[in-house]
Write a structure and sequence with these properties.
It comes from Cryobacterium arcticum. This is Diguanylate cyclase domain protein. Pfam families: GAF, GGDEF, PAS. The longest helix is centred in the first third of the chain and has 34 residues. Strand 9 and strand 10 form a beta hairpin. This protein is an alpha+beta fold. The chain starts with 9 loop residues before the first helix and ends with a strand. The protein folds into three domains: about 110 residues, PAS domain (Beta-Lactamase); about 170 residues, GAF domain (Beta-Lactamase), CATH 3.30.450; about 150 residues, Reverse transcriptase/Diguanylate cyclase domain (Alpha-Beta Plaits, 2-Layer Sandwich), CATH 3.30.70.270. The strands form three sheets. A five-stranded antiparallel beta sheet has the order 2-1-5-4-3. It has a five-stranded antiparallel beta sheet with strand order 7-6-10-9-8. It contains 15 helices and 15 strands.
Length: about 475
């Protein structure tokens, strides 16, 4: 079939030239013999430039290779090919993706290939849209699974360690970060790494890890998608982070009721896109984590209040008994002595009566501070009630206990500040010492009662004294 000798019927000729598909015929070696208007329009060439041209010359570089190595060999062996994807090059430098279906007719004097060419743009767009929709669905399913796993892990968490572990595992599921750090802010503003690892742990304090500090200060995510971003945002840390292989980072703050209480920090060892889907997922994890962290903080606050005196901040009687119970157990296992020092203030009632209860409260606060100042690391001070303080001491003997009592009496005797400025109180101290294998085994209450008895002996002896008793 030639360009001049088309179908005899006018309708058939119009159908040939104006069909919504490119139609052409070519020889077995690829020379175009005839082409319809649609095919010529798609190439951008007039018919006289298309007819006689090699079909190969109308293809993009990649499609030329496909045409020579796959298209023609398959067509010659199978005689028919359906929807082979090729790319046409237009005369204006553009391209058009097409699907080519061909039939090889070798029944005549000259073998011809009849080809129908369909615009693949719509189909490719549909396939891309379908692929994107599938990926979006897979991302949504993965997101739901990660959030469900996070909820299941966070719900039972009652400690910062359990909270941090559950949140870190979920963040690791959401990213391919080399390290994930879960950081919380204490009531005093101090930062604590509760789970995971972080860069520069040996050289930079957590409070000086600027990406984390920036997120906590602003309440906004901090993103560095490359080493260049890190160098621009945090020039002082860029070289050190690069030395540890950190090339990208993302820090998402944990915010509850407008208060920043922690952060999720992800450290990557290669550049990252850090797209909106990832940021949204990390933000959702932070949102899930915020009320759990607040609950744990409240639980700790309640526990602390139940074990500490509200005025002085010292452990209370219940905490003292718990501490003594542990110390006595350790004493039996390791054969070391335990002492209790029972302190009662002399002159406190007079200050309370003369200067008022607020002055009395100030005296108790000052005494608590002085006890903290002079006691050893192994000593645990507590407010027992009223103007009575009890100290539980570990790793101690009778001589050391008396030395501790002397330091306490000297500190308590210092002039007072506040409403009772310049006034003084003193301390009558009773000491009880338990030494495993030497003295009779005692319970916490027994040891406290013995120290109380020794304190009363000091009172009767003239106050401002100390007395030591053993079981």
């Amino acid at each position: 079939m030639t360009d001049a000798g088309g179908p005899p019927d006018d309708v058939a000729r119009a159908l040939f030239h104006h069909a919504p598909a490119g139609l052409f015929a070519m020889t077995a070696d690829g020379v175009i013999r005839s082409a319809n208007d649609t095919f010529c329009e798609w190439t951008g060439y007039p018919r006289e430039d298309v007819v006689g041209r090699y079909f190969l010359a109308l293809l993009s570089r990649g499609s030329k290779l496909i045409f020579e190595t796959r298209y023609m060999p398959l067509l010659q062996t199978q005689s028919r090919l359906n929807e082979m994807m090729l790319t046409l090059s237009t005369n204006v430098g553009g391209t058009r993706n097409v699907l080519v279906s061909s039939v090889l007719d070798d029944s005549g004097a000259e073998a011809l290939v009849y080809a129908a060419v369909f615009d693949a743009g719509i189909r490719l767009k549909y396939e891309r849209d379908l692929l994107e929709a599938r990926r979006a669905a897979e991302t949504a399913v993965a997101r739901v699974r990660i959030l469900q796993a996070a909820a299941a892990g966070l719900a039972p968490a009652s400690t910062l360690a359990a909270f941090g572990s559950a949140l870190r595992v979920s963040a690791e599921m959401a990213t391919d970060a080399a390290h994930v750090s879960v950081i919380v802010t204490g009531a005093d503003g101090t930062l604590e790494l509760v789970s995971g690892a972080r860069p520069l742990a040996e050289t930079v304090d957590l409070a000086d890890l600027l990406p984390v500090g920036a997120a906590l200060a602003s309440g906004l995510p901090v993103l560095c998608r490359s080493a260049a971003d890190i160098a621009e945002s945090f020039p002082g840390l860029a070289a050190a982070l690069d030395a540890e292989g950190v090339e990208a980072l993302c820090v998402v703050p944990i915010i509850d009721n407008g208060t920043v209480s922690g952060a999720i920090a992800c450290w990557f060892q290669r550049q990252r896109v850090l797209d909106e889907n990832l940021l949204d997922l990390l933000g959702a994890l932070a949102t899930q984590a915020a009320p759990v962290l607040e609950r744990i903080h409240l639980q700790h606050q309640i526990e602390h209040q139940s074990l500490h005196d509200s005025l002085t901040g010292l452990p209370n009687r219940r905490a003292l008994q718990n501490r003594l119970r542990r110390l006595l157990g350790d004493a039996e296992r390791h054969g070391r002595a335990v002492a209790v020092l029972f302190l009662d203030l002399d002159g406190f009632k007079a200050i309370n009566d003369d200067f008022g209860h607020e002055a009395g409260d100030q005296v108790l606060e000052q005494v608590a501070l002085r006890l903290r100042r002079v006691l050893r690391e192994d000593d645990t001070p507590s407010r027992f009630g009223g103007d009575e303080f009890v100290i539980a001491s570990d790793r101690i003997d009778q001589t050391s206990a008396l030395e501790v009592a002397q330091r306490i009496r000297q500190a308590v005797r210092e002039p007072l500040d506040g409403l009772a400025q310049g006034q003084r109180v003193s301390a009558s101290i009773g000491i009880s010492v338990y030494t495993p294998g030497i003295t009779t085994p005692l319970s916490p209450d027994d040891l406290i009662a013995l120290a109380d008895e020794a304190m009363l002996t000091s009172k009767r002896a003239g106050k401002g004294r100390d007395t030591l008793l053993t079981a």
